[in-house]
Amino acid sequence: MVTYRKLQQTGGDEGSSFLVILPKDWVLRQKLGKGDTVVVAEREDGCLIVDPRLPKAGEPRTTTVQIEANLRWEITSKYLLGFDEIRVASGEPITTDQRLELKKIISRFVALEITDEITHDDGHEIVVRCLVDPSTLPVRKAMKRMNLIASRMLNDALTAYFEGAKDLAEDVIQRDEEVDRLFFLIVRELRSAIQYPRMSEIMSIAPVEALDLRLAAQYIERIADLSVDIAGRTDKAPTVSFIKRMESIADKVKEMLSKSVENLFKFDSEKVVSVITAERELIDDIGKTRQYVLSKSNGEPHTELFVIDSLLRIGEAAKDIVDLALPQS
Predict the structure, then answer these.
(1) Does one domain contain both 315 and 207?
(2) What CA–CA distance (Å, rounded) separates 189 from 187?
(3) Which residues of the chain have pLDDT under 50?
(4) Measured between alpha carbons, how far is 154 from 226 in angstroms, rounded to an integer?
(5) I need a surface site. Which of 136, 168, 214, 296 has the fewest CB within 10 A?
(6) What are the Cα distances from residue 14, in Å, to 8, 17, 318?
(7) Domain region containing 73
(8) Which residues are registered as beta bridge partners of 51?
(9) Whole-number Cα distances in Å, 75 to 78, 107, 134, 194, 248
(10) Beta strands in 143-268 (DSSP E)
């Protein structure tokens, strides 16, 4: 709903203050009254935000979910929505299997821990708290860590595929869980930055920038998933001729990824041009390699085409990341 208000000036034409009357319905919905404090924050585009929630920004947000429900989804959604405390309730005594399942679920998230178990007249509760503070693991630092893991996963996945190294492939697959944990944490913090102006100020992340970082994190998470897919194709090492063709493509993709993420934190127009140009070259190289695979009668064409397409999609993700970067001034 949009309302219009005229500015009023105190003290006549010589007054130094201006007033805006807040809509009464909004004041009542926010349960505000005379003497209550609201915070007025200016956005980068010049708009003012009147935030009635800011005085409570430091207080923990609590929610309750039922252990009998779809617990994995409930915990995930509440974590991403920024709740600091999740109370897992049950009308019956909580069993050992339910506790183990809960521990397994919360292991997917950074700093989510069981801190208490309560029995009362209405039933039983396990208290789960998020112990991380955005100031201890800032979004940009978490994203750099996430990209470092994903980049190493890609490098090791290709090595495992080229050499048929199943142990290394299994290690790549295990590391994907750490990428997912960081991804969930980043999404949680970026949601808070968008929802609460004060959190945005603390994180030094504007709402528009938060949207770009959210997309970039999703692309990096996707790159880790594609690396897992490549690692899962190590049943048989490819031919030497195929490896020679793929090595230059793999190097190009890894360089594109490195430049695109670097550019996300420090804009460089030359890197943007380099990644865009490399994507065009990659598409051409992939096309030629695909034709080569289809023309030969031996080898594992389905597996080889799968790896080729995975590298193309990683290159496209790197291009999408570099598209998000904008000059800072």
Answers:
(1) yes
(2) 6
(3) 55, 57
(4) 8
(5) 136
(6) 12, 9, 57
(7) 62-130
(8) 39
(9) 5, 11, 19, 21, 43
(10) none
CB 321 within 8 A of CB 216: yes
Q: In CATH, what number is assigned to the domain containing residue 272?
A: 1.20.58.220
Angle formed by the axes of helices 166-195 and 207-231, to 10°? 170
Q: Which amino acid is at 324?
A: L
Give CA 129 to chain center in angstroms.
20
Asked, for residue 234, whether it belongs to a domain, the answer is yes
* Spatial contact of 126 and 93, defined as CB atoms under 8 Å apart: no
Q: Per residue in 32-88, pLDDT tens? A: 888 888 878 777 677 888 877 654 545 678 999 999 778 999 999 999 998 999 999
Predicted pLDDT at 55: 45
Distances (CA, A) of 220 to 8, 163, 313, 316: 50, 25, 12, 11
- Note whether residue 259 is domain-resident: yes
DSSP class of 21: P
Cα–Cα dist 35/204, whole Å:
30
Count of domains in the chain? Answer: 3
Instruction: Give the separation between CA 71 and CA 14, rounded to whole angstroms.
Output: 62
